[in-house]
Amino acid sequence: SVDLIKKGLVEAAFKVEAENEKYPLFKTKDIGDGKSEKADYFRVWIWRPGESNGAEPAGEENGRGSDDPATSVGEEISLVLPLSANFRFDLQFGRRVMAKLLGLEKRANWRDCGQEEAEEVADAEAFKKAFRDFDFSMEE
Predict the structure, then answer these.
(1) Three-state DSSP string of the chain
(2) Whole-model pTM?
(3) pLDDT, tens digit, 9 for 90 and up, residues 41-52
């Protein structure tokens, strides 16, 4: 939810969970596309919607709303967790943190989220339809 981001809870949750797991500290660092990084890393990229100072919420003029990163001004926060060669990192770390934040802890393990084939096909079609405008593979 956008409220979790605006209140800084997403950022805090990742930092606290990393501390609980005795992971290295997250650094707030803009690494761009990451190609210049010499070592491995885990990045959390958070987009925080900007606050409106007028009567209309920012971005409302195009009907997409103020919480759309493509159309409104906001702030990007990049949290970077450096991963060294001798560090054992749980690849489900990000999923676990977000599951806790969203109150979906029973779905933190992907193996516990199975669907019937018909449900999976329906979800895939709904996803494709919702993100059709952003699918570059459909461009000619």
Answers:
(1) CHHHHHCCHHHHHHHHHHHHCCCCCCEECCCCCCCCCCCEEEEEEEEEECCCCCCCCCCHHHCCCCCCCCCCCEEEEEEEEEECCCCCCCCCHHHHHHHHHCCCHHHCCHHHCCCCHHHHHHHHHHHHHHCHHHCHHHCC
(2) 0.69
(3) 999 999 887 765
